[in-house]
UniProtKB/TrEMBL annotation:
Record-given protein name: arginine--tRNA ligase
SUPFAM superfamilies in alphabetical order: Anticodon-binding domain of a subclass of class I aminoacyl-tRNA synthetases, Arginyl-tRNA synthetase (ArgRS), N-terminal 'additional' domain
Keyword field contains Magnesium: no
Source organism of this protein record: Streptomyces tendae
PANTHER family associated with the record: ARGININE--TRNA LIGASE, CYTOPLASMIC (PTHR11956:SF5), ARGINYL-TRNA SYNTHETASE (PTHR11956)
Arginyl tRNA synthetase N-terminal domain boundaries: 4-92
E.C. numbers: 6.1.1.19
Length: 345
């Protein structure tokens, strides 16, 4: 169950409670689910009971208990705990992780794309005429479009030719230098072009916009200290596992991988991360998320293929599907940042 699907499940529980006369409230348009905060538990939490308590004329814990009784019977939910003043803390069952993997493999690189900006009119982005600003502009436009936005990306002045030819930056128009500039991160301290497209874009996008980026050869080294290398290596390893499994005569099949809850949870978070990245105009959120996916995938990689004379089993197929799904998320995220995800490193 993805966060979007869980949100719909909670909203359905609210709607049923209203329809059956247990709650006298206007059904909200959407319910927000997030990772549990301090004192919480489970996979996701929602404060919907606190939001409904006043209009319902009931204490929030009572509203939460009412919704809990309904959610416990929903497919993919293994437990619901009420904490604090009325937070619902939801644990997903093993079948939920299977659904997430299946959804990733079904959607491919479009997993996590949504429609939260659909119908909101044109989003106009104007970047300062500086290399980091235009790379941020390009990535923000890609991410916003993945969430259904109509984007018009402009630069306050003509682009340098190398920003397009080397860094792959695209803008929809050029405006005057007096235009209201909304994309103005801390400028790059030196020219990133010698790093090449992928390393340069990562160097400019991975730090938060208010942080000063580091432009150096550390983005080119192929070792674990380089976050970009970890992300691309994890993707390449996942693709190599798919090829090696095919040579052994088996393919991935979504199934329960009980010893990888962190990776399953991280993949389930992808739609939420993309939506938040778009809402906050912060490509660094996506970059840091991809590092988290790569680091969560690393412990799984050695256990995917059978060893020696061992025959492929259902566990191997489930692990392969999970690794393939993680690689798919890494490739899709890198693409939105304008960075290549090579199958071989």
């Amino acid at each position: 169950m993805t966060p979007v699907e869980l949100s719909r499940t909670v909203l359905h529980a609210v709607r049923r409670a209203v329809d059956e006369g247990e709650l006298a409230v206007t059904v909200p348009e959407r319910v927000v689910v997030t990772p549990p905060g301090p004192g919480g538990c489970g996979d996701y939490a929602t404060n919907v009971a606190l939001q409904l308590a006043r209009p319902a004329g009931q204490p929030a814990p009572q509203v939460a208990a009412l919704l809990r009784s309904r959610l416990l019977h929903a497919d993919g939910i293994s437990d619901v705990v009420v904490t604090g003043p009325g937070f619902l803390n939801i644990s997903l069952g093993g079948a939920a992780s299977v659904e997430v993997v299946a959804e990733v493999l079904r959607c491919g690189g479009r997993y996590g794309h949504g429609d939260s900006f659909t119908g909101q009119g044109v989003v106009r982005l104007v970047a300062a005429r500086e290399v980091r600003a235009v790379v941020q502009l390009d990535a923000m436009a890609r991410i916003l479009r993945s969430q259904g936005a109509l984007v018009h990306a402009e630069c306050a002045g003509p682009l340098q030719a190398e920003w397009g030819s080397v860094l792959g930056v695209h803008v929809d128009g050029v405006c005057g230098e007096n235009a209201e500039v909304g994309v103005r991160p801390v400028p790059a301290p030196s020219d990133p072009l010698p790093l090449g497209r992928d390393a340069a874009r990562w160097a400019l996008l991975h730090p938060a916009p208010h942080d000063r980026p580091r432009i150096g050869d550390e983005h080119l080294v192929q070792r674990e200290s380089n976050p970009l290398f970890r992300v691309r290596y994890a993707h390449a390893r996942s693709r190599a596992l798919v090829r090696n499994a095919a040579d052994l005569g088996f393919t991935g099949e979504p199934g329960v991988v009980a010893d990888q809850p962190a990776l399953c949870q991280t993949l389930a978070d992808h739609p939420r991360v993309l939506a938040a990245t778009a809402a906050h105009r912060a490509p660094d959120r996506l970059a840091r998320y991809l590092v988290a996916v790569a680091d969560a995938l690393a412990p799984l990689l050695p256990a995917v293929l059978p060893l020696g004379e061992e025959k492929p089993s259902a566990v191997h197929r489930a692990r392969l599907a999970l690794a393939e799904a993680a690689g798919t998320v890494l490739a899709g995220g890198l693409s939105l940042l304008g960075i290549e995800a090579p199958e071989h490193l």
